[in-house]
Design brief:
The complex is a heterodimer of chains A (about 375) and B (about 70). Chain A is α/β, with parallel strands linked by helices and about 375 residues long. Chain A folds into three domains: about 110 residues, Beta Barrel (OB fold (Dihydrolipoamide Acetyltransferase, E2P)); about 160 residues, Rossmann fold; about 40 residues, no CATH class. Chain A has eleven helices and 16 strands. The N and C termini of chain A lie far apart (about 180 Å). Chain B has a domain of about 45 residues. The radius of gyration of chain B is 21 Å and the shape is elongated. Classes of the chains: A alpha/beta (about 375), B mainly alpha (about 70). Strand 9 of chain A pairs parallel with strand 1 of chain B, so a sheet runs across the interface.
């Protein structure tokens, strides 16, 4: 149909109907494409010609209305539910009566395992490139958290296992549990929401995200971009205890620590009370010993000083005696005795040492001292 | 000074023990360290003794629709 404008002077004006028709014509010339998104607001009623749903971009929430002929939709037997990820093959279309733009679906395919794997790998590379898994982003876990948050599925086993592991290691632990869906298309947002709520609770210093083992699809919510980003943005350190050892959901990579078993998770978030108490007691014992050691050292130094003090007069005496002996030795070395030993003699007359023959006359009595002994003599002549 | 956390207190206590065991502390310092150490020990013990194990459920709005 031709799109005609009404002329008002030099202004060309379109009616709503012709405008919509024009846009609709233009849109219908665009090619058919595949669009990926999450199914939300799925509306199907037996008396309706078409099935309506909204396709949502999980990363930023952008929406696209989709319609499909009900017969075609039913023939696919997809049993779609809200939250599922799909590929829709279709072309853009304008519902002219309302001016609504939408995608007219010709086919819908559920995201398969291979698609999930490929998408997961792509997402992993993208988030890694953003640095979300970088080791330097990892925060240290508190050694003794005042309160522990536990985000877990409403399946009893995983919750009980983690609680038992924590409380048996550290009985005084305080734990706040948030149960949530951990499986199915709504799980990722539900977990992220539970996480946000638990982090707002007072005194929470670490959060354990726990889920038992499951199939690849079961663990998919833990690799959902929204949850991974929520974990990265979480103000509290996170321990990811999801699945078993061989599973590596992205939550494990973005978390501050990962644990492959409930026991490992408990080891990460609480200390061993028995060990802690023993260590504290050891410290106290060492404290007493150390202080006694310092006291003993001071006491020994004091005793030593006292000993020195007591020995001081004796030492002085000994030193003086030694000095005296030394002098005596030197004195002896200087005495004429040694000279006499070599054959010299001392001659005395009337008690005076005779140094010159002029002191003597014939007949004078002299006393001669030798090296050994001596004798009296009379002078015969002088020279 | 605000009260230290258990970890801070334990770390300080172990630091004090190390200082005392090194034998470098003077008598006056040793006495001061000992007094501080005993205080920290009491603090840690009290914290452990007073910690009451408690498991609570986060009160959440029950969602009507299950997936």
């Amino acid at each position: 149909m031709k799109v005609e404008a009404i002329e008002y002077g030099d202004r060309r004006v379109f009616t709503v109907s012709s405008f919509n028709r024009g846009i609709g014509d233009w849109l219908s010339r665009l090619p058919t494409v595949w669009v990926e998104g999450e199914v939300t607001e799925l509306r199907r009623q037996a008396r309706w010609q078409s099935v309506f749903l909204t396709l949502k971009d999980p990363t930023d929430g952008a929406c696209l209305g989709v319609t499909m002929a009900r017969g075609q939709f039913d023939a696919l037997r997809l049993e779609l539910v809200n939250g599922e990820r799909v590929h829709v093959f279709g072309r853009p279309e304008l519902f002219e009566a309302r001016g609504d733009f939408r995608l007219r679906a010709l086919s819908i395919e559920r995201f398969g395992l291979g698609d999930h794997l490929a998408a997961l790998e792509r997402l992993k590379r993208k988030l890694a490139a953003e640095g979300l898994f970088a080791p330097e982003r990892k925060r240290a876990l508190p050694r003794l958290p005042r309160r522990i948050g536990l985000v877990t599925g409403n399946d009893a086993a995983a919750k009980r296992d983690v609680l038992t592991a924590i409380t048996s290691r550290f009985p005084p632990a305080r734990i706040l549990v948030a149960e949530t869906y951990v499986q199915g298309p709504r799980a990722a947002t539900a977990i992220a929401e539970a996480l946000r709520e638990i982090c707002e609770a007072p005194e929470i210093e670490v959060v354990v995200l726990a889920r038992g083992g499951g199939s690849f699809e079961d663990l998919l919510p833990f690799s959902d971009e929204r949850l991974v980003r929520a974990l990265a943005a979480c103000p509290v350190p996170i321990v990811s205890a999801v699945g078993h050892e061989q599973d590596t959901p992205l939550s494990d990579l973005v978390a501050d620590a990962r644990a492959s078993t409930p026991t490992a998770a408990a080891r990460l978030v609480v200390p061993d009370l028995a060990e802690l108490t023993a260590r504290l007691e050891r410290s106290r014992t060492a404290l007493g010993r150390g202080t006694r050691g310092a006291l003993d050292r001071e006491r020994r130094r004091l005793d030593l000083a006292r000993d020195h003090l007591r020995r001081a007069p004796l030492l002085l005496l000994e030193r003086r005696r030694a000095a005296l002996e030394h002098s005596a030795g030197r004195l002896r070395a200087l005495s004429p005795r040694a000279t006499l030993e070599r054959g010299y003699a001392i001659v005395r007359a009337a008690g005076e040492i005779v140094r010159s023959s002029s002191q003597l006359a014939s007949g004078t009595s002299v006393d001669v001292e030798l090296g050994t002994g001596g004798f009296g003599a009379r002078v015969e002549e002088t020279r | 000074m605000s009260e230290p956390t258990f970890e801070e207190a334990q770390r300080e206590l172990e630091g004090i023990v190390q200082r005392l065991e090194s034998g470098e502390a003077s008598l006056d310092e040793a006495i001061t360290l000992w007094e501080r150490g005993e205080e920290l020990y009491r603090l840690c013990s009290t914290k452990l003794d007073s910690a009451q194990g408690r498991i609570e459920e986060l009160a959440r709005r029950v969602e009507a629709v299950k997936p």
